[in-house]
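Service request form, structural biology core

Requester: graduate student, group of Dr. S.
Request type: structure prediction, single chain
Budget code: on file
Notes: please return the result as structure tokens.

Sequence provided:
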Amino acid sequence: MKLFSRVVLPILLIIYIAIETYAKLNNSPICTSTGCNLAGELLKFNSVYLNYFGALGALFIALFGYLSLKKEAFEKLFFITLYAAIAFESIMIAYQIIANPEPCSFCLGVYGGLLFIALMSQWRYLLYALPAIAALFISMSFLAMTENRSIIKKDGNYLIGSDKCPYCKKSKEYFKEKGIPYKILSIYDTNARFFIKQLDINSIPVLVIKKNDTSIVIKGYKAITSHFNKAIKSANTPETKSTPKGIYNSADEGCSASILQDSGCSESPSVPLR
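Core staff response, request fulfilled:
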């Protein structure tokens, strides 16, 4: 039984990883789901190197498992390596579940293989580890991580703001008055908040105008209304030059983009992030 759980199963896991690695190197991976493709985008390096790392880890598990059959001293190394691999894969899977619409099925296969090895090797140890694994998944779900998805897909006007920000309310009222269609993106959305922070914008409202392959970012109530006032005037007077494309910045009224300040503010200039 020990030979099967500590040597045979890890070797089967190595073969599983090796087959997928070979197929991936030949541009014909077995796993072609959206989750697998998106999981590769979350890595800082080519995903094939993660396959090498996984195969190496499984090799050590098999090696220490084999040596544990001959010398009891290697049994601790076997379980330490096995549960280190489970902890590593738990973090990877937990992050994928949060960041991606679906996790990588290949990674789930590896994760399932490791858990099965742990179950067959010593089910009591796995039972002891389950609360720690569950705590890891729960703690990861508490973090405000950006998701691997687009928040602006179609052409249109996208207003990043909050219901508690008076300048966001003014912008909405202006759009309603002028009959300008728009879609609201909440500042509480992690992707929306990350997007404006990447542009070094620390206050709301922020308007993103997407048209074809061009996107315009405008910050601040005055800058937003000024842009559309000029556009309306330009439409009525053809000889008026249109406003250049790019990022518009205005040091006018706005609310803090920090969720720590609840995205609310008084009728005063914007408050920078701390």
